[in-house]
Fold this sequence. Notes:
Elements: E1 9-16, E2 22-32, E3 37-51, E4 66-80, E5 91-106, H1 111-114, E6 123-136, E7 149-157, E8 167-174
Antiparallel strand pairs: 1-2, 2-3, 3-4, 4-5, 5-6, 6-7, 7-8
Amino acid sequence: EYLHLRPSKLSLSGYYSINQQYKFTLTPQLYMWRNQLFFSIDLVYGHFVERFYDIGNNTPDTGLEDYTSDSWGGTATIQLPPLFISRNPNNKLGLIFDFLNYQIDDKKNNPYLQNGEVNGRQGGWSSGAGITWVWDNRDQIFYPTHGMFHQLSALFYLQEMGSDYLFNRYKADLR
């Protein structure tokens, strides 16, 4: 049986807006050992002009909601076929490590960030680890004409991993 080897790639992207905000992303994705091993890491850096309107449905628009932030981080993923289920290269289990440093540089005149009541008003670290399951039998990864891509993942952000915030993230990507 012929095995179509997946191409590895390196992506670099970015943008800059008229609001002087920007984001740069570097993403290597590597397929190795005849598609048995997949490794990727998404590295990001950005400066953003954002708005925060406090919490709740009845928050008034004061015109002072702007603030600026900087963030940098990454998500590393490694996937292997699960030996206890199948050696099918379409089926993979993996580990994920995700981290992000988010800092609010200038609160400007935003009263909601300056009042001291909002958790995270200074920014902080979020770092977590988790698992992922992938089923990918597409004929091509860039322009598939048939096949499916399904990915389920669960990440857990804990203080033991250096996170300032405790939360879980669950994701389903079904194509």
